[in-house]
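TEACHING EXERCISE
Course module: macromolecular assemblies
Task: Read the component lines below, then compare them to the predicted structure of the full complex.
Student: A.B.
Group: 4
Components provided:
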Amino acid sequence: MQTRQAPCEIRVDAVRKRFGRNAAVDDVSFTVQPGRVTGFLGPNGAGKTTTLRMLLGLITPTAGQTLIGGRRYEELDSPSATVGALLEANGFHPGRSGRDHLRTYAGAAGIPDKRIDEVLDRVGLAAAGRQHVRGYSLGMRQRLGIAAALLTDPPVLICDEPTNGLDPEGIRWLRGLLRDEAAAGHTVLVSSHLLTEMQHIVDAVVVIDHGRVVFDGDVDAVGTTAVRVTCTDAAGLSAAIASHGDASAVVDTVGQDTLVLHGVDAARVGELARDAGIALSELVTESGNLEDLFFKLTDTDAVSADTVGASR
Amino acid sequence: MSAPTLEHVATTRQGGDASARLRVALHIEVSKLVTTRTWWVLGLVAVAVAVLVTILTVAGANPSDHSPLDIFTGALIGGVQTAYMITAIVGITAVAGEYRHRTITASYLAVPHRGRLISAKLIVLAGYGLIVGVIVVAVCTAVAAPWLSARSLLNGTLSAAGLTRAIVGGTAAIAIMTAVGVAVGALLRNQIVAVGVLLVYLFAIEQTINSIAAVRPIYPYLPGGAVQSLAFSGHRAFGSATGAVLLNPWLAALVMIGYAVVITAIAVRTSIRRDVS
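Instructor-supplied answer key:
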């Protein structure tokens, strides 16, 4: 129990994958720590799935290596007991029951029926477990895939676009589940191209675009909060902030009467405006979000990895 | 999570040695086979068509054409040949069906060593073929022997050795051809293509080779010929006067197992090694 439950770090080390002339993954390195949810983000086609499949030994890297708890997936003593994986193109035989699917594939050997029922119950498939997968909806299949990933209570959980096919309630449930897994000390790596889904549950993010890592850090680092202020004299306020020597303050003028300020909090902006005799009609703190970062990073090639590195 | 059950999982699942890993793979393959309907539906079909072919052969038997031994073994081998085409299809679906339904991803996650996974399939499906083979041969013998006896076409000339060889050889033929199906499925990975190739090969290509005098001597070494040799050795292929002389049963078994192993080895180094995405 101790050995199996030992925390497992995921390490992706200078991995490349070429499909023909096209580099799907180009020198990607990052680590994923236990006890946290790490979001693996990027637009469709960025190389997320390819990277996750390399981690799981399904795709052979052209160069570099991927390690789970210091070993390649193929070298793990008991892969199913170490890593739970939910992958997009993972299929089910239509003529096999959900229960039998778990028994056959995810358990590998020796999973007691009691545990299978427990997991089916946890994903909300207790009633459908004995039905053939043929009759499952997309959401039920996704839940069965999640059950398969959780069956052995593995210390590492890797999910590729896990919210696919889930309804809003299912997405909320999945978020809680991922948080619980991380809270249990497990290593959780979740890919997504939908940022809003990830915003509130990830502790760390790795952003990938065109096969390269463009951001790798704590989600707190993403949230550079901004203050948006609307007033009668935007130019005057801008001058006031500058003259009062808030050195770290960065001012973006947005339109005639609106400023977006970084590196200064709303209370200070209010004081400065009062002292300068400028009336404010709006003063809002905007928490910087993942989505902004994401679009900033992945929008065009103009923002290179270097720029991001500098901003960290 | 309930610790005791998981401890059980941990202890049974741990173990790094190759034989323990193969046991896990075998366990998974048995479970895959018995949790869908394919195994018993096609198993029943195999027995049914084998019996049908045996009945037609015995009914159409003409005492002036063959020796009594030929009529019995001919009826049996007809049934066996039909049965192994069906069980070979079960073997094909064991691999190609996983690619078709995309369960292959889950399979490789559970058993990352691909050669081990396919080896486990070979062993499990050969075992399945053996069981179907025993049933096919037993039922066909039970149909053919009393009937031929009643028609006085089994006048005690059927030696115990010949009978044993036909029964054991026929069973082995079905078991090994099921494994060959696994190998073909692994090599081609597309279920429809693999079944098509197998049937065209057995029905058309081998028969053509057997009908051309210049290349006929290689026929007993081809899968269909070697399989006939298992139950029919020392005779000429299809009992005809001009067919190639069939192989010694042990050599035939070796040749057949060789096909399964060599095709699998090629598959593991080529098609099975490919990325699964």
